Amino acid sequence: MVPIEKDQQKKCSTSLRLIPHLEDLYRKDYQKFQRKGLRMSDVNSVCERRIWFEFHNPEKSQEIEPRKVIRFSHGNQIHDLDRQKLQIAGLVMNVEKELYDSRLKLSGHCDGRIPIWKFETVEDGREKTPILEIKTANLYKFQEMERSGLDQGYYDQVQLYMDTAKCGEALVLVHNMDTGHLLEFTVLVDSVRIKQIKKWFRAFGKTLKNSEPSARPHPRDSWQCGYCDYKKHCWIGVPEEPTSPEFKADGSAVPDTEMLESAAKTFLSLKRAEKASKKELEVCRAVIEQYFAASGEKEIAIGDDKIIRATKKSTVYDLDILNLDLEMLRAVSKAQSALIQKAVKDGLIDATKFELSKKIEFGEEIKAEFGKEKTNGNVTD
Predict the structure, then answer these.
(1) Mean of the pLDDT values across residues 321-326?
(2) By C-alpha distance, which of 310, 362, 354 is closest to 335?
(3) Which of these, 21, 312, 357, 369, has the minimum number of CB atoms within 10 Å of its CB?
(4) DSSP one-letter code for 4
(5) Is the pTM of this model over 0.85?
(6) Residue 242 forms part of a structural domain
């Protein structure tokens, strides 16, 4: 192949001529999935508060980021394609069978019934022919199910399907959207769990009639809030974290160029060496920090390398607001987001109180970016 000339490359540029239209088409598809009542799949919801908003304040729904809407649509397309192939092969019948629990007023639909086994009646008058449920998952969730088994929300959802369809068995097919890998789970009817799920729905049905939604179950920066249509409306009145302060000269003396260049070169060299002398590194750091403070500059260029002035954010918590026990206090103080989110989900921390308890402190740090080594400026001490 003949190499392309640089002048020819300039004739190709990024544009935004079709993308806005395509995003709008995906968004219209997403809007078709607006709720009309409680669904059996709501047992798989990560936030009861969001469901309350969908019933009481649907007009407060915000416009979701295009990439998330597109990913939602791709998941539906993969789901439909898998089901279609199984149907054509004669492995699935009664596709998209509607299900309805008249007592709880719950609607749902399974992806079909699998006729490869004969219709047999088992205990409680349930048919043995399995129902089919197809799910799509990202890589993280797929790997989690590989390690720990079927997601609890999916398990509960098919339990409701089996109960309504008078079926004793279900097959759950999980399609990894990122890699194309597949997982399959066989789920047997669990009468004890079904009673627990119905009890939850009866209580939740009463909650939906309240004039105010339940407490926030997740922190603002959680992935659950990140994918929610009502995030902006939900967190009204709760202050945002402060933004990073601007760098300004403090009026002190600026180190001369020779001293600064010497300090910067030495600093970069020490950053590359894992066992560099800590004392010498701090001496050079002091000179560079003095330059940054005095000049208000954000970086120092030394050949292909750079020393970048940055802000390091640390979070402390108002313990009077949180009122945590000692064990949970230790978990929060380590700023381990997974533990914090688990504590919120388990009701040990109220998400609103947690948000209000945050106190952001800024401290400065210096990052070394080695141009010759093609790093990404993520070398920190």
Answers:
(1) 63
(2) 354
(3) 21
(4) P
(5) no
(6) no
